[in-house]
Design a protein that fits this description.
The protein has 136 residues and is an all-alpha fold. It contains 5 helices and no strands.
Length: 136
Amino acid sequence: ELLASIKVRAAIEGAVFVVSTASLAALALVLHFFPNALGSNVSEAAPLVMLALMVPGLRNLTEYQAELLFARGRTGMRAVILAIVGALKVGLLYLALGWMTSTSQLVLTLNAVFLALYVVSAVLTYTALRQPAKTF
């Protein structure tokens, strides 16, 4: 019942996104000033961290939505939605890897890929949550 309110759902998802994004932003800030903080082999990738800023938040939201289905006893639907999102992820990453000509373009494109995955997951999850669970 708590999730029936769009405001509550938006607030929860907003909090998940903000915390996840702020965490990566903090890491990017540390790596900006101390590129070797995670080791010399990571220092080359340090400038790319900020480009993928939205990816963890959007990925965590997709996982949160899957957990909502699990909590509501919709494990079968959860598996179906995760399979759809997984197949879409494979396709979108295949396209991104084929079209992007630079590493920074590819990393930046990951934000759009994970945004698309989140939108599909949200539409499917919240549609499924409106329907009563089938019992056998």
